[in-house]
Amino acid sequence: MGKPGRDLHLGPPGEERVADATLEPLCGSLPHSHITLTLALRAARGCPRRDHRGAVGRQDSAGRAAGTALHTSRPIPVVASGREMVVLSVPAEVTVILLDIEGTTTPIAFVKDILFPYIKENVKEYLQTHWEEEECQQDVSLLRKQAEEDSHLDGAVAIPAGCGNGADDLHQMIQAVVDNVCWQMSLDRKTTALKQLQGHMWRAAFAAGRLKGEFFEDVVPAVRKWREAGMKVFIYSSGSVEAQKLLFGYSTEGDILELVDGHFDTKIGHKVESDSYRKIAHSIGCSTNNILFLTDVTLEASAAEEADVHVAVVVRPGNAGLTDDEKTYYSLITSFSELYLPSST
């Protein structure tokens, strides 16, 4: 898998005691005895350990670093309120949490089974209703330009230029746009032209109450706690910034845009390119190692890691499976509640 990862961690296995100032739980306090016991048990079992660049070592009572130590590569199970959970300590240098959406904050099923089907099922009606509006015409022009660029591709659907005002001509043109949109979506394309029309359609649907953004139940409570702890929270998704804001502005939790400090989409760069994360850090005004990126896609995690960003891979129902190497290499969480922030005291 290449160079060592930048896993988040609780500390070295076998450590005698976790100092009171080491962790600040996001969802209630955990007895240190349970954490210490689990660490000792893992050490006794000979659990694999790795050295990681960016690892946070133990701290003395004054909070000074006591050196970087080997630590477990996986989240550590602890017992809280009678149940087992895993926890990951967020490095003290992290001040920004960067979130993916699909498969991380929001079920993939919501995107694939609700958002995208809505486009296919309603694009014709939307075009017929908004055809004369300038915004709609701009969307069509952009799609037509994209269709010209795609003319060499198998199955590409051309969009003819307007050559008449008759009802038949209008029907033919609208149908061509519909066919082009469905063709692009069948290939899971993410062209600017397609995303722009989708964004405008979703805006109308969210505003009319036909759609509401969905989030995993742990997301909003955790984000609130992060912000209360002084963390900044940003979104980085392949979906347009406008679509992101719709999801957070018209959600089942109400308007939660206030919980997000800013949004990034692929205009800043593709998510599998490490330079995108450097640009994001520059835009935010921080160093890349001040950022923790949460995503369900390991290619994105790898790109972020190359830019010296801390990463954790989010495992959710419906997400693509991970290889054994990926499970070993990356820190994995199944809920945002499994993240622990450095104590501010």
UniProtKB/TrEMBL annotation:
Keyword Ribonucleoprotein: no
Localization: Cytoplasm; Nucleus
UniProtKB keywords: Amino-acid biosynthesis, Cytoplasm, Hydrolase, Magnesium, Metal-binding, Methionine biosynthesis, Nucleus
GO-annotated biological processes: L-methionine salvage from methylthioadenosine
Annotated residues for binding of substrate: 237-238, 271
Involved pathway(s): Amino-acid biosynthesis; L-methionine biosynthesis via salvage pathway; L-methionine from S-methyl-5-thio-alpha-D-ribose 1-phosphate: step 4/6; Amino-acid biosynthesis; L-methionine biosynthesis via salvage pathway; L-methionine from S-methyl-5-thio-alpha-D-ribose 1-phosphate: step 3/6
Alphabetized GO MF terms: acireductone synthase activity; magnesium ion binding
Coiled coil spans: none
Group of enzyme by EC: hydrolase
Co-factor(s): Mg(2+)
Stretch list, region Disordered: 50-69
Protein residues bound to Mg(2+): 100, 102, 296
Highest rank taxon of the organism: Eukaryota
Cofactor: how and how many bound: Binds 1 Mg(2+) ion per subunit.
Annotated GO CC locations: cytoplasm; nucleus
Pfam families from the UniProt entry: Hydrolase
Family assignment from sequence similarity: Belongs to the HAD-like hydrolase superfamily. MasA/MtnC family.
Assembly information from the UniProt record: Monomer.
The name this protein goes by in its record: Enolase-phosphatase E1
